[in-house]
Amino acid sequence: MRKFWLLFSQSVTVLLAGYFVVLTLKPQWLSQRPTLGSVSVIEAPASTARVPAPGSLSAAAKAASGAVVSINTSKAASRNPNAEDPWFRFFFGDQAQGEPQIGLGSGVIVSPNGYILTNNHVVEGADDIEVSLIDSRKAKAKVIGTDPETDLAILKIELDKLPVIVLGSSETLEIGDQVLAIGNPFGVGQTVTSGIVSALGRNQLGINVFENFIQTDAAINPGNSGGALVDTQGRLLGINTAIYSRSGGSMGIGFAIPVSSARQVLDSIIRDGQVTRGWIGVEPQELTAELAQTFNVKAKTGVIITGVMQNGPAAQAGIRPGDVITAVAGQPVRTVTELLSAVAALRPGTTSNLTVQRKDGSLQVSVTPGKRQRPRLPR
């Protein structure tokens, strides 16, 4: 009996030793297909294509991301105005040059020829502009034209096989539509955020002369300026421009220039080298009860004219102080901003009709707008 027990214990010892050797060196031999209860679970092969989850916006991000670029700018150091003062040099040393200024932003490739839409404030005053694509290619960019009044600029790079974004329709946008913001916030690299359209036609914000912003709660941060606001199919809806913030970061209120406005600026700059806008020579103000009483007008909506430039287009057409303009070329206007935008859209030299309310009556006035002069930028 003792002999059999000794033989049994030796066999068990050998089997356990073999088990631990296999467990250490070839654990996969001991693995079994995972089961759920008594039903076998079959795992998908690693090569199976990923199916986007319901509600995923990955397709839109992929469609648009390649055309969104990072923009790095540099401006030569300015000379210190006190550099030649001997007392200044005695106390502070030779500080003839300040530190060079470096900036970053984003842009959107809108043409296979290398045209890029971005914000004017991203490239304004820059001596050197470098564009970086998502495929790691880089190129020096040339400024084709700028429009400070809408804060837009057009750049051009010389590269082959450029990814180009598809332009969408900002006119069909509705509040609540889902959107993506793509750019290079804080220089961390291309980033995609999502949100909805919070409001349309935002103006009187004091950001630009001509304002018609799309408002969104998609996170937009410094460095996103000039980047793309796209729909769920990756089509360009706007150029991200500004945020409302008390901290410098996103607070859920961002603004984008509609692609319809950006397209007009793009076409005008490429065609004429500058943006051409209409001008009629009036001083408009918001219609208030006090002004209506002062000029004895009965209009309830529109923009009241308190001054008319002598021999200007409006004066030649018969517009006079106290008139209330309610529509330009059939487009209703309710605020000064809407009036400026509507007049700016008129073609200089081409006669258009203004709907004017004077005293108790309404009349159509034909006016031939002149060319709006670009504002002189401070030096």
Q: Mean pLDDT, as a whole number?
A: 82
At CATH level 3, the topology of the domain at 170-272 is Thrombin, subunit H
User: What's the name of the CATH homologous superfamily of the domain at 170-272?
Assistant: Trypsin-like serine proteases
C-alpha end-to-end distance? 110 Å
Q: pLDDT below 50 for ≥5 consecutive residues: which ranges? A: 34-41
Q: How are strands sequenced across the largest beta sheet?
A: 7-6-3-4-5-9-8
The CATH class of the domain at 170-272 turns out to be: Mainly Beta
Query: What proportion of the residues form beta strands (DSSP E)?
Result: 25-35%
Rg on CA atoms, Å: 32 Å
How many strands, which pairing sense, and closed or not: the largest β-sheet?
Answer: 7 strands, antiparallel
CATH architecture of the domain at 170-272: Beta Barrel
SS class: alpha+beta
Give me the number of helical elements: 8
Helix content: 10-25%
User: Got a strand count?
Assistant: 23
Query: Can you tell me the overall shape?
Result: elongated
Could you describe the 3D structure shown?
- The chain has 379 residues and is of the alpha+beta class.
- It has helices at 2-25, 58-65, 86-92, 120-123, 259-272, 289-294, 313-317, 336-344, and strands at residues 35-36, 39-40, 68-75, 101-109, 115-119, 128-132, 138-140, 142-147, 152-156, 178-183, 191-202, 213-216, 228-230, 236-243, 254-258, 278-279, 282-286, 303-308, 324-328, 331-332, 352-358, 361-367, 370-371.
- It is elongated and about 130 Å long.
